[in-house]
Amino acid sequence: MERSTYWLCFALVLALAAFNLFWSLGSVPVSDWDEARHGVTAYEMLRSGNWVVSTYAERPDYWNLKPPIGHWMTASSFSAFGYTNFSLRFFSALLSWLTVILTMLIADRVSGKAAALLSGLVLATLYGFVLVHSGRAGDYDAAFTFFAILSFYLVIRGSDHPLFFCLAGLPAALAFLTKSFAVIAVIAVIGLFVLLGRKQSRLLFRHYLGFAFLFLLPLFAWGIARYHHDGLLFLKAMVWYDLIRRSSQGVEGNVGNHFFYIETFVEGTAWWLYSSGGLLLLLLMPRIAPVKDQPKINEHTAYPLLLVLIWLILPMILFSVAKTKLPWYINLVYPAAAIFCAFSIQAVFSSNSFHRGTWNSLRKGIVVLVCLAASVGAELQIIKAVAKQVRTTDKAQEVLLKLPAGPQPEQRTLFLACEPRQSLIMIAAAQKHLILDTLTGPEFDEAVRETPEWNLVAVEMKVRERLALGKERLLTHGRPGDLIMLSNTEENRQYLETYRLSAVAMNEAWLIAEKRG
Description:
- The chain is mainly alpha-helical.
- The protein is built from 22 helices and 7 strands.
- α3 (69-81) packs across α4 (85-111), α13 runs parallel beside α15 (334-350) and α15 packs antiparallel against α16 (358-391).
């Protein structure tokens, strides 16, 4: 392949990846739980200036027990672009885009430039990589995957220059500081690779020591800084909950059978998995290509390919053994799957074991058609899913976005006469610069636990007996300009007239009223 052609195709693959990752990125409503909670924490970190202790509702957060790298990235995005949904997700999309580049660089070392381009195309159109809690979400799985793959790339480069192996410890440390003990899978892949590939390795003891030093130094620095603020409280909770409990039991009901991640992997890679698998069967058909005539893998290819195979298989095994199961835990393996798919497809296309003439031309034509169908099908799947997300409306977020900013928005309080979902807090606290409070009193947590369905209306109904007292709190403690959010019912509209409150934003589900002077 000519150099100019290669770089043109390289740019086209990156353009496709950028489209899939950034298209309408800020138009999708904030999702509850992880994404919204990360947004709140990053917002509060930016406002407080405390870059060590993660908080939620302006108190130290001992539920989300992740180290601070992800919060730092989101906070810096807020600082650069403002408090928007796009800012919340910017670093996930950017690092996923960079992951496509790293994947192509690794694939180039495995099987050449054609496989590199194909691996980028595969990864850019993988549903699991783009949409499952990763590239288009304000979560930290995309950042973790990027740091892990950067570490793998440096480990592979370490076969030529051992200094790169030492440097691989730093992105591995950043992976830990993003998703804590999920880094065990990364270290396990590197460890097994070093063990099995030691005959081809030029590594000495000092290089392993360098890797360990660069891995442990940032961890100790952060651990000491955190210890300075709250002793061992956060660190012990992180070990107990994120490592021991998640491994030994299905926390928060997130369980699955032994095939959970195989099923998840198939769903996340379906178009390319079936396509490359079908082509491999074509290659192995005895009447067309006897197995003994298959092309040999040379030593230069075998070393990085070994890491890709370990990277593809070992995390699947480790996460399957753990009791807590969530689909995005295996996002780490999607780039490896893209490389292996590309390697397999190229093997079919370039194999010399086919009979010459008609069969040879037919085989190449089949490969091209299958790849074209897989890429179009996978791309349409992503476009359809994103379009559906954009069309989805969250009525509570919708009414908050309609809320006009006051003259001193940072001094306004929004009282919620409902269960304060994290996505509401994200929208209100960050995008509108409001202080959040709830009218439901100390019984709120108990009411939420007893509510069978976690939504605003259900919890408001559950705590209705506390609502009258809570509304009085707005009149007693609220100041002119403070706000209250209520479901849009006849009873609540009459309440506004009774207490001389002005509705400043509403839709068919919710209304927000302002306290007059």
